[in-house]
Amino acid sequence: MAEYIQGINPTIMKWARERSGYTLQEVAKSFNRDVATISNWESGAAAPTYVQLETLADKYKRPVAMFFFPEPPQEPDFVGQLALRTSEGEQLAPSIRILLRQARARQLSLMELW
After folding, report:
1. Which of 29, 34, 37, 81 is the 20 to 30 Å CA partner of 113?
2. In angstroms, how far apart are the furthest CA atoms of the chain?
3. CB–CB of 11/19 below 8 Å?
4. For residue range 51-77, what is the model confidence (pLDDT) as tens digits?
């Protein structure tokens, strides 16, 4: 029987999902679970197994250790900094958000090398 992980910060679970651009329904569907299960993880009422946490971290493209931080890390709002023509309320796809984070990380690396 799988053991549930203790010590996960539910605030960071919600933060990571929202920053990645996923809805509760999308995450629940990818885990083959109902929305209440994911919501319970994010509220602290329940916890995922380690395998589920790894899968979640991979989906959000975040390190597993981040889910144990005491508070969400400071991260610039890449989406808010872009001048995009989108209809109001339309959000960037999660894959685009991930690419923006990766591009920013590469920019920082290149600035350090330069």
Report:
1. 81
2. 51
3. no
4. 999 999 999 999 999 999 999 988 776
- The single residue listed with the structure tokens 């894959």 is 95
* 4 three-class SS: strand
38 contacts 28 by C-beta, under 8 angstroms = yes
The predicted structure's pLDDT at residue 88: 52
The three-state secondary structure class of 14 is: helix
CA gap 41, 100 in Å, rounded: 27
Please choose, from the candidates 26, 27, 80, the residue with its C-alpha nearest in 3D space to the C-alpha of residue 53: 27
Gap between the Cα atoms of 7 and 22, Å rounded: 23
User: Which pTM value belongs to this model?
Assistant: 0.74
